[in-house]
Amino acid sequence: MELLRLENVTKRFGGLVAVNKVSFTVEKGEAIGIVGPNGSGKTTLYNLINGVYFPDEGRIYFEGQDITELPTHARAPLGMARTFQIPRPFGGATTRENVAVGAMFGHAKASVDEALEIADEYLKLVGIYDKGDVEAARLTPLEKKLMEVARALAMKPKLLLLDEVMAGMNPSDIDQLIELLKRVKEEEDISIVSMVEHLMHAITKFAERVIVMHQGEKLLEGPTMEVLNHPKVVEIYLGKKVV
Amino acid sequence: MKDSLKNLTDVSLLWLLAIIAVMAVIPPITNSITMREDIFLILQYIALAASLNIILGFTGYVSFGHIVYYGIGGYVAFALMYFYGIHLIPAMIAGGIVCAIIAYLLGEAVLRLRGAYFAIATIGINEAVKALVNNLEFLGGSAGLFFNFKIYQNYGGAGNAIWLAYYLMAILAIVVITSNYLIKKSKFGLGLMSIREDEDAAIVLGIDTKKYKSLAYMLSAFFPGMVGAIFFFKNGNIEPVNAFHLLKSIEMIFMVVLGGFGTVTGPFVGSLLYERIRGLLLVNPLFKDLHMAVAGIILLLLILFVPSGVIGYLRDKVAILRRYVE
Question: Is a pLDDT exceeding 90 seen at residue B289?
């Protein structure tokens, strides 16, 4: 079953083509990795899927519904959630309230009391339940990332967009988070799109399929190991052999 | 809805309402006119500060010229009573509704602005409305309007009319504090909090920020409109200089920040403290015309050292208070 479909999506900023005629689909329950070097258009792609920008050309469909020009806030209730590259907690609120906001306004559409219960459930899941009453601004960078994952999951999304969520984490934390995401994906049938710049080993453990972005274009798409070992990908990351 | 009704019996709201109610019944019991005037002023401060708290404290939008709604509500109600002899209560509600409508329309434009730009725009609105009213002949221009004393006869004489204004102000203060509490505990309130903390993240999380901000702005304009109606009814005259006095706007901000913005008890505590500070400084010949300067210095120190205000600070330091002080 197809969940998300991009058709020839293009976004320009002045003369710069940030995303150029990109098409792909995400199936229900699938884990996809989007890789590409800095400036390859990954974040712009997320902002297009998410509605922060509207594309100049092309269409975007979610569960068959055309959402190309649907306002951002209307996409979360449909079942779309994302985390940010740099975590964006509601600093003055408690960690529990942060996660509860996700449950109230996302696809879960919970009441205040239900949302607080859902929040506790997901705080336990990501392992920061003991920080529930702490102001989110006071969390460590790792805890902030975990809080964002909990907040996104509490929305009960169908599609979860992770933006460099593993960057800056140590390897054992990354492994833990990957295990957790795999489990949630199976249990709740979520499609997860994860974008990374450099953490290739994380992607190989997690993604079933990989899309490689380069200079705003989709360069390659296919099974993870096959794509990551492709000469073109090696060339983007490591450069051409001179001799 | 069930959630909010359950919240009404919460201790952290009840003790606050009890204090306001007890305070409000002292003057009628002791029949003291000076007490009545003092407490009327405090109740007015509470109602104004708690109204501003909805947009400033909960939503994080610094409405600097918020007094404009006090003036508009005052003028609408005053004109209805002056020209058509309408009773204070319907005139007051009309004043509030007109303010909410104007806030909706202005909000469509100014709520797109953020930070200092929004604050400056609201000052501009206040000054523009003041200039407009100054030039409206039928509202008396810069001289304003004066009640004919006969108007008070409908209320059983001037004495009774003033008491009516007093009781209405007490009820209004209680209503505004209660609505602050209900908002804070609701889904709407948590949506506003998200806007205050990170508006762009709030949008991505599914909050219709445009609608939420608009509603918060309308509510925070509705109540000052009614406060203005009661005040100018009791005052017996209304003129642009008094109705749209930017100084009163700064007083409102001061009270909210002093008490603790975004809390429910904060605006109440801020109002009490400000009334005391103002009283002490006004009667002291040394500070006679300087009370706003002193308030300004306090405001500066607060923002530097205790940005969360008295209640925010106490809630932070004393864990047990978090259960009883909202």
Answer: no
Judgement on whether residues A58 and A82 belong to the same structural domain of the protein: no
The residue count of chain A comes to 243
Q: What angle do CA A73, A78, A80 make, to 5 degrees?
A: 75
Q: How is the beta sheet containing A209-214 ordered, strand by strand?
A: A80-82, A159-163, A191-196, A31-35, A209-214, A217-223
* C-beta atoms of B201 and A88 within 8 A: yes
Beta bridge partners of B283: none
- Tell me the average pLDDT across B182-199: 95
Chain B partners of A72 at a C-beta cutoff of 8 Å? 203-204
Whether residue B1 is predicted with pLDDT greater than 60 in this model: the reply is no
Using an 8 Å CB-CB cutoff, list chain B residues near A160: none
Question: How many helices (DSSP H) and strands (DSSP E) are in chain B?
Answer: 16, 2
Those residues whose C-beta lies under 8 Å from the C-beta of residue B24, and which sit 6 or more positions away, are B39, B43, B167, B170, B173
Nearest residue on chain B to A151, alpha-carbon basis: B205
- Provide, as residue numbers in chain B, all residues whose Cβ is less than 8 Å from the Cβ of A92: 193, 196-197, 262
Q: In this complex, do A73 and B190 lie within 8 Å of one another by their Cβ atoms?
A: no
Q: Are the Cβ atoms of B198 and A151 closer than 8 angstroms?
A: no
Domains: count for chain A:
2
Q: What angle do CA B69, B309, B118 make, to 5 degrees?
A: 40
CB of B193 within 8 Å of a chain A CB? The answer is yes
What is the CATH code of the structural domain delimited by B2-324?
Answer: 1.10.3470
**Percentage of residues of chain B with pLDDT beyond 70:** 98
**What is the model's pTM?**
0.92
Are A51 and A130 within one domain? no
Whole domain around residue A82: which residue ranges? 75-169+183-192
Q: DSSP labels for A68-132?
A: TT--GGGTHHHHEEE--SS----TTSBHHHHHHHHHHHSTT---HHHHHHHHHHHHHHHT-GGGT
User: Could B191 and A89 be called an inter-chain contact, meaning their C-beta atoms sit closer than 8 Å?
Assistant: no
Q: CA nearest A47 in B: which residue?
A: B204
Burial class (CB in 10 A: 0-12, 13-18, 19+), B167: middle
- CA–CA separation, B183 vs B217, rounded Å? 13
